[in-house]
Amino acid sequence: MTFDKTRSAGYLANHLARLFAQHLAAGIAPLGLAPAQFMALLELWREDGLTQAELCARLDVEQATMAGTLGRMARDGLIERRAHPADRRAQTVHLTDRARALEAPATEAARAVNARALAALPEAERAPFVASLHRITEEMRRRKP
Amino acid sequence: MTFDKTRSAGYLANHLARLFAQHLAAGIAPLGLAPAQFMALLELWREDGLTQAELCARLDVEQATMAGTLGRMARDGLIERRAHPADRRAQTVHLTDRARALEAPATEAARAVNARALAALPEAERAPFVASLHRITEEMRRRKP
DNA sequence: GCCACTTGCATAGCACGCTATTCAAGCCGT
DNA sequence: ACGGCTTGAATAGCGTGCTATGCAAGTGGC
Questions:
Q1: Are B20 and A18 in contact (CB under 8 A)?
Q2: Considering only residues 106-145 of protein chain B, which place a Cβ less than 7 A from any atom of strand D?
Q3: What are the domain boundaries of chain A?
Q4: Closest CA to A109 of A19, A30, A16, A13
Q5: What's chain A's Rg over C-alpha atoms?
Q6: A16-142 CATH
Q7: What is the pLDDT confidence band of residue B143, given thresholds at 50, 70 and 90?
Q8: Confidence band (pLDDT; 50, 70, 90) for A144?
Q9: In A, which residues are within 8 Å of B132 by CB distance?
Q10: Keywords of this protein's UniProt record, alphabetized (chains A, B) (predicted)?
Q11: Which residue of B11, B37, B111, B118 is the best one to mutate when testing the A interface, meaning the one whose CB has the most A CBs within 10 A?
Q12: How near does any CA of chain A get to the CA of B40, in Å?
């Protein structure tokens, strides 16, 4: 039996994620955003003034990755880093007005991508699919390689 | 209404793909393989002597991406490129013995990752989940951004 | 037969992921 | 108060994805 990629959850997850990233990138590029920046903004819109470490934990990415993303966001005028009031090692990350103004259009673009993607499934299968995605993701995250 | 990432198919697909990539990378690193190289091998194990363009089409990645992956694979002694017999622009990609020997252990590692991941779902939900993944992927691939 | 379009690859530049390393600052037990 | 572990962040190096270019070789129409 050869390995059938069209039935491999891992292969399909990779392919699907690339497709989502392409669609999302196209949707938010006009706003001057890249996908990873949008993810970081998602957290910052909920709660401003997080530290880099907190962002890492919430998005489950490595610290070095987040440092790069935040660097690009600062360069692009989306965030400002300020000294942490209580810990001189840490910095807090704050949204600029420009970033705050992007919340509505950016989340709208993301919602549109999700809607168009899920349209491929019969309505009754959408919620179970997303639930399964969530379930597997949480499990794999718990017991990392 | 704020955007809930834990219910966003796109967000979850990205997260899941990163987790799969980490698990797979850990599983095949001892073989000297990286995830994208494994994907290319998957096609070459089925049919040796493909051109770069054919590999791109089958894996749905851009030509420039494949050029990079094949370059690393040639560097690592996994493939050889030969002149195409009929088209002087093209090259055909051929497996080395080393790459051929990796088929069994590498596919086994990938299968193990899939199995462990799907173990998070009740048995009855696994097939529908993979089917949905496949369905959405195919649809999104058809009508690209 | 020639010029224009297409096609196969390489390359450069950038975004993101990861690991590994380094450094400063906080924390702790003795 | 000290020496040692932990923690927050930057940096370097690498793999993988993308777009955009550039060039050589094939193809077609006239």
A1: no
A2: none
A3: 16-142
A4: A30
A5: 18
A6: 1.10.10.10
A7: confident
A8: confident
A9: 121, 125, 128-129, 132
A10: DNA-binding, Transcription, Transcription regulation
A11: B11
A12: 11
Q: What is the 3-state secondary structure of A115-131?
A: HHHHCCCCHHHHHHHHH
Return d(Cα A100, Cα A97) in angstroms, integer: 5
B13-142, CATH topology level: Arc Repressor Mutant, subunit A (1.10.10)
Hey, what are B42's tokens? Answer: 């998957």
Chain A interface, best mutation among B1, B2, B3, B4, by max A CB count within 10 A? B3
User: Among all residues of chain B, which has the CA nearest to that of A137?
Assistant: B16
A67-107 per-position pLDDT tens digit: 999 999 999 999 999 999 999 999 999 999 999 999 999 99
Which pLDDT does position A143 carry in this prediction? Answer: 84
Q: Is a pLDDT exceeding 80 seen at residue B26?
A: yes
